[in-house]
Write a structure and sequence with these properties.
83 residues, 3 strands, 19% helix, 33% strand
Length: 83
């Protein structure tokens, strides 16, 4: 059974990095200058927080593929960071 999650992240260079997963759908407003590349947040449905994070990273990568995210991006080493 899928549950709603909000995944919050930022871009590190040309790679999306997740910094947190929150149960439920939430509006997210970031302060200015958190990262130069830009922050992102995504609402989606998944079976677990881990699945939500993986789906969000995959979706962000697919949305940005035209801009050249490397195919060798290792999602297992994408641990996130504090904002």
């Amino acid at each position: 059974m899928s549950n709603p999650f909000t995944v919050i992240g930022y871009w590190r260079g040309d790679r999306p990095v997740s910094v947190g997963v929150i149960a439920g759908e939430h509006d997210v407003h970031a302060g200015e200058g958190v990262t130069e590349e830009g922050d992102w947040a995504m609402f989606l449905e998944a079976d677990s927080p881990e699945a939500a994070q993986a789906l969000a990273i995959k979706d962000m990568r697919e949305r940005d593929e035209a801009e050249g995210i490397p195919d060798d991006f290792d999602e297992d080493n994408n641990k996130g960071a504090q904002l």
